[in-house]
Each structure stands twice: as structure tokens, then as C-alpha cells.
Request: fold
Amino acid sequence: MFLNYLFLYFLCTGYCRAEDCLSRDYDHGGTVCVCNSDHCDTIPRPEKVEQPQLLIYTSNKAGSRFEQTTGQFEQSDAPDNQIRIDPAQKFQTILGWGGAFTDAAGINLDSLNEQLQEKLLRSYFADDGIEYSLCRVPIGGTDFSTRGYSYDDGDVDEDLVNFVLADEDHQYKIPFIKKALDLTENNLRLFASTWTAPKWMKTNGEYAGYGFLLEEMYQAWANYFVKFLNSYQSEGIEFWGITTGNEPSLAMAPLDQINTVGWNSTQMAKWILNNLGPSIRNSNHSAINIMILDDQRMFLPWFLDEALSDNTTRGYIDGIAVHWYADVFFPASLLTDTHNNFPEKFILATEACNGAVVLGSWERGESYSNDIIQDVSNWVGGWIDWNMVLDLGGGPTYINNFVDSPIIVNATGGEFYKQPMFYHLGHFSNFPTTRRRDLCRHLE
Reply:
């Protein structure tokens, strides 16, 4: 499946020169493209071709990467050779595609010289790259940090007097987010997710483990979200969305080391209704999109049915955030069930990754494409990868939760590797984008 990965775009476009892939085979069922100070592959931009011509962009297991060729539409009366578009039948709005600005991603970007940093960021965000348009920003530390932390550690501080962004924000997140915004001409949407609250807000007094939010801290936790948005706003960064928090179900696994705040549906409903919803809507960020869940398909749709049973609570929520990790066990039809129950809410896939680093795995790219196609076929409006950049070991991660990434940095070797996952993602994120629509006209 997808061995010859073709995408046909009916664009009034044609050839433009691009840098070819510098291919390297690590004997893992595919190849990577190597980027160094002298070379980094780019995507040929489309230019106008005449009807009935079309362009074909091909990436495949044999090593082609966005190889551009031309074809031609042919008149046919055979039903299987016709593409029929019914403009009256509408589905979901596509919100965007992207990855996460984690501490680990920033640390690996920072390990490269400025020339390579520019090439890597261009690969993701420029018009000769895959043009990411929607990215996730952690609020504080995650498992892909070098330490556990929040923005208000220490003694109980219910008024958040000691709230302050971390060194990681100023060194590894904000600078690269700003560069990405520049590359996209500010056409990059951002949404934020928390992992953990300060220890003093939680029932177990720890970042991870079986810990929930103390009820007397519900308002302080909502204020924490607003403080974060205000802090980034003062740095010139605005957010399109926030989630209610990353994977609250992790609290149900007491031995899991990933930092989290646990919620059940009743607790979350109460917090949204009385604290988060009013605090956000009465802040300077009242138009921001609030997404509930940020967890696996297994919670669809029952968790939402319970949490959003009150219409006022439901009214505070704009979208539903889902992760991919249990998708093999829970069918994509649950997404359609969720859409049917909440047709006014968008659904966004907000995290995905594979296990330990395997350089050149085409199979992992296929797993991404399969999941995206299933999601989009069931009302999902976008798909966000996890760490955009990791090192050869799949980190750094302070809890040794090493995983793969579409781009792997070899800082010692002065190069980085674009995995097949990168190109699979690019076939979705790159065609079309709002920045490219001005190049296109409908074919008649």
C-alpha cells in the first residue's frame, strides 16, 4: 500500500526547479534525505500549465521525494475514470497540519548552526517546504523536556504571584516559533496544551502518577491558562486555540511517568463550566478556540456525552482534540459518532508518533498516511504530529520515553535526516494551502 504514493492536484500550475533528495539507506525498509550545510532538498513549486494538463507529485519507497511530473486528463465515459465534485455536499473545514514546538524540538534545533537551523525550519514552514500551518505549543514542561517543571513551582501560590515563563520558553520555544511565523508570513495557527499543574495544585503532590486537581485549585488552574496566554502575548505570540490538558487518562496509570493532570468527565465538566470557560471568555483571549479531551479515541463519544451534557458547558467548547495511540483498537467510526453527537464542534487530531527511532522506515510513513486518511474520512479537520525534531536516540526526554520523529538531528555530524514520515505528512500539508490558493483557478 502506498508503494507508489501519488497525489494528483487539479491546479493551474507547472514546473519549478527544486533541490533533489540526498538519499541514504540505513536498511530499514526505506531511505532518508540528508540535509547538511551544502545541500537540503526542497519541493518544486507549481506553476501554470494549460488544460487538460495536470501535475503529479510522487514520493515512494524506492526513494522519490515530491518528484514532479505532468499528465493529462482524458475524456472518458467510464464511471471509474471520472471525478465528480458536488459543491452542494459539504464536509468539515480543514484547519491545518503540523507538529509540536516541544523543548526537545527546540534543543535539537539549537544544537545546529544557524544555516542548518534555517534549512530545517524552511523544510517545515517555507513555501519550498511542506508548509505546516497549525502547530502545538506545550504550556510548561512535558516528558520531552530535560526536567519536570511548571511555571509556578515551590510553595502554594494560589494567586500565581510567582508565575513566570521558564528558561526553556525563552531559549527553545519562543525564538523558533517567531522564525516559523516569519517563514509563514504569520499564517501559522498555534494552540497550547498543558501537561501538568504545579505540584501544590494536585492531589498527589507530584507532576506524574495518580494525581488530580484539588477542587480548591480549580480557579487557580484556569487563571494559570490565562497567565500563559498573556505571557506569550507580551512576547508577540497569539494563540488560535487551547486544549483542556494533555491525556488526563494517564493519571489512571499510577506507574506512568508522563506528567499529567487527571480528570474524570464530571470533574472536567465542573471545571469548564465554573472556571476555565468563564475565565477565558472574560479575558483578552475570549475568541480563542477551546478544545476538550486531548486524549485517545477510546473516550469517544461517551466522555464528551457526559462532560458536555449541560448546554452552558457545551457552549464553552469549540472543538474536540484526539490522539492516535490506541487507534488500532478503536475504529475511526467513533469519530463520526462524535461528530453526529456534536455537529457544531470541530475535531482535530492533536498528537501522534511512533516508537524508538528507525531511520528510513517507509512503513512508519504509511502508518501516518493511513491514519490521516481514516481521520479525515470521519470528520477530522487536521492532524498534528508530536515532536517536530529529535536526536538520534529519540530525545531528549527526562523520563527516557524515546520515540521517533519526522526529522532526526545528528548534531555531531552536522546534518539532519528527513524521514519518510516527513514526506507522507507533506503530501497532506502542502496541497493546497491558503498561501497557494492565489496561484490556482478552478478548472472548468
